What does this fold into?
Amino acid sequence: MQNALEAGNACGKVCLLLHKCFESIGVSNRIAYGVFEYAGLKNAHVWLYVGDHLVDNTYVSLTSLENFVTVKKLIKYMETDPDTVTDLFLGDEDTRKLGITDHTIKSFKWELQNSDKSLEIMKNKIQLKHYFGVMREFMAKRYEVNIDVSRIVHETCWNCNGKFDKLLKCGKCKVALYCGRECQKSDWKNIHKLICLPPNTF
It folds into this structure.
């Protein structure tokens, strides 16, 4: 699964889902957004703290356990606003050739502040939809809890947050909802164009 996620800039979405899973069974945890540094390269990143334990989905695809442990020990995690780091790596031609989209700090901040909306949009990405489904099934069987997004995601305008009887769907992602064209245009300009994904995106 992680191999499929590597090209998805998925750390934020995976952490949001894990956060929701932990919360559903009463395990206290918090999401951390900042920078990790490895081999001189600084990346904006999202990870979890469960108690005093740091939980990170990065590098789990390494086949050698020895290499995995070595890398983990060398990573430096910093809870600092990525906007304040001048030499931050956000993507280059090599990563784009691999299909990895540039890291957009604005969209990651939005995801962390709007977790249910982010999780709903993530289902449009094939690999993440599968991951979401696997986790939902696991939590249902193991803990008898239902992991899903809040009803408010389906009942309110994504721009003004008002509740309306009728809402318009974004024509591209078929997920985001709006009370009218003005709110849709405003949200597209502010953030939605950065996070909008058509269904079945690889």
Q: What stands out?
A: Residues 126-143 form the longest helix (18 residues).
